[in-house]
Amino acid sequence: MDLYGNPGQDPKKKKKTAMKNSRTRTEEVKARVKYTEANRQVKRSIGCDKQKYVEDLPTTVEKGITEGNMK
């Protein structure tokens, strides 16, 4: 499963296996660059998701309080 719960291999994992299976040093360097970029994108998206969650949390709490759904 990938990060989003979909079956199959995610692109980051494919790039990691390509990096491990490279035969020459130049192939390894190219694969490492691709993997590093994919890793950065994943980390950025996780950071954006966390920030969005934290920003939306107070509005969710206020909505729950006004509706009486406190837990």
Summarize the helix and strand pattern as letters: HH
Strand count, sense and barrel status of the largest sheet are:
none
Poorly predicted spans:
none
Task: Compute the separation of the termini in Å.
Answer: 32 Å
What helical percentage do the residues reach?
Answer: over 70%
| Count of runs of 4 or more consecutive helical residues | 2
How much of the sequence lies in strands comes to under 5%
Based on CA inertia axes, which overall geometry fits? rod-shaped
Written description of the protein model:
With 71 residues, this protein is mostly helical. It has one domain (11-67). The chain is 75% helix and 0% strand. It contains two helices and no strands. Helix 1 (11-20) packs antiparallel against helix 2 (25-67). The mean pLDDT is 83. Residues 1-31 are annotated as: Disordered.
Q: Brief description of this entry?
A:
By secondary structure, the protein is mainly alpha-helical. The protein has two helices and no strands.
List the helices and strands and how they pair.
Layout: H1 11-20, H2 25-67
Properties at a glance:
single chain, 71 residues, mainly alpha, 75% helix, rod-shaped
